[in-house]
């Protein structure tokens, strides 16, 4: 799990993904010679900090967002949320500005009207606009991994593991997912127009709920705030049963992903969210069971052959 640990330690909140992109491209160029098929890398200014890998004759694309949640520094020591981080008093945050590295903590101030102010505690003022993220804290036991940013560095790790044996398919490493961006739109359009790809799998991390449990296998989401097309969903569930991989079905009323953005686009792209469930969502203590992680990799590998 050394690669996953490295991924969780790289700063890359929504809008600030250039460093994680550079790490991933360097990793791919260094390691892809050992993969079954060497991919074509598609990236450049026209794709911002997104990039894509294309293998063989692709029919299906895996989408994995590379951004994370965090905070922007505002005025008078104010912190403004990027995405939806949990705001717990005393959270350890890191970043850097023009004066150097920063290790600070979140202070939650509750006003009389019940509203909350978010401030940082530091010996000096931090430059306005500086982005702060959770301090790395990777923990591994025999059964589980616990760390900030399993969402979605684990989804990225899964895509890289699938890449090792992938013969035909595409990987999309997208940005801005946590803060409502639709960068998947122009990537999907490119893949549709150039490769005819109309099928997508969303490699992301879902939540432990009363219906989705740790150690129950990877979760296939039948719906969240978006609704995948039922015939495509049925096809995926049938292939999952054929695979013999342990999985569970998720049915939720809220939440979203790159799949939601695909559904809101004007492109005829089928999508389905498939991911391991985590506890302590959007905190530094996101917890995922290893059994569910390995189920995720195995099912994705099988689906990319059969779809």
Report on the structure:
The protein contains seven helices and 19 strands. It has 307 residues and is of the alpha/beta class. The chain has two domains: 236 residues, Zn peptidases (Aminopeptidase, 3-Layer(aba) Sandwich); 65 residues, Elongation Factor Tu (Ef-tu), domain 3 (Beta Barrel), CATH 2.40.30. Strands 1-2-12-3-13-17-15-16 form an eight-stranded mixed beta sheet, with helices on both faces. It has a six-stranded antiparallel beta sheet with strand order 5-4-9-6-7-8, with no helix packed on it. The protein has a three-stranded antiparallel beta sheet with strand order 10-11-19. A hairpin with a 5-residue loop joins strand 4 and strand 5. The longest helix has 17 residues. The chain is globular. It starts with a helix and ends with a helix.
Which features characterize this protein?
single chain; 307 residues; alpha/beta; Aminopeptidase; Elongation Factor Tu (Ef-tu), domain 3; 2 domains; 8-stranded mixed sheet; 6-stranded antiparallel sheet; 7 helices; 28% helix; 30% strand
What CATH architecture of the largest domain do you see?
A: 3-Layer(aba) Sandwich
- CATH first level of the largest domain: which class? Alpha Beta
**Counted beta strands:** 19
Query: Tell me about the biggest sheet?
Result: 8 strands, mixed
The run of helices and strands is HHEEEEEEEEEEEHEHEEEHEHEEEH
pLDDT average, as an integer?
A: 97
Indicate the percent of residues in helices.
25-40%
Distance between the termini: 28 Å
Apparent shape: globular
Radius of gyration: 19 Å
């Amino acid at each position: 799990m050394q690669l996953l640990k490295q991924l969780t330690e790289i700063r890359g909140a929504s809008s600030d993904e250039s460093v994680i992109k550079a790490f991933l491209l360097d990793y791919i160029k260094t390691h892809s010679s050992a993969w079954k098929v060497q991919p074509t890398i598609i990236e450049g200014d026209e794709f911002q900090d997104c990039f894509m890998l294309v293998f063989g004759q692709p029919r299906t694309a895996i989408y994995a967002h590379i951004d994370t949640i965090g905070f922007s520094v505002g005025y008078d020591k104010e912190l403004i949320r990027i995405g939806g981080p949990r705001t717990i008093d005393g959270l350890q945050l890191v970043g850097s500005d023009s004066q150097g590295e920063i290790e600070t903590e979140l202070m939650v101030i509750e006003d009389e009207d019940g509203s909350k102010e978010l401030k940082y505690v530091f010996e000096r003022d931090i430059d306005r606009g500086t982005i702060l993220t959770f301090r790395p804290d990777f923990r591994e036991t025999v059964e589980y991994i616990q760390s900030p940013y399993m969402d979605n560095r684990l989804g990225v790790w899964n895509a890289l593991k699938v890449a090792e044996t992938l013969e035909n398919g595409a990987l999309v490493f997208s940005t801005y997912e946590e803060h409502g961006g639709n960068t998947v739109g122009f990537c999907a359009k490119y893949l549709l127009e150039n490769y005819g790809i109309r099928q997508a799998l969303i490699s992301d991390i879902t939540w432990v709920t009363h219906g989705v449990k740790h150690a129950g296998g990877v979760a296939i989401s039948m719906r969240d705030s978006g609704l995948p097309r039922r015939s495509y969903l049925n096809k995926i569930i049938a292939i999952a049963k054929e695979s013999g991989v342990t999985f569970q079905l998720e049915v939720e009323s809220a939440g979203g992903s790159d799949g939601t953005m695909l559904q809101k686009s004007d492109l005829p792209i089928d999508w389905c969210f498939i991911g391991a469930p985590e506890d302590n969502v959007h905190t530094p203590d996101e917890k995922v069971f290893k059994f569910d992680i390995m189920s995720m990799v195995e099912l994705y590998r099988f689906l990319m052959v059969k779809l």
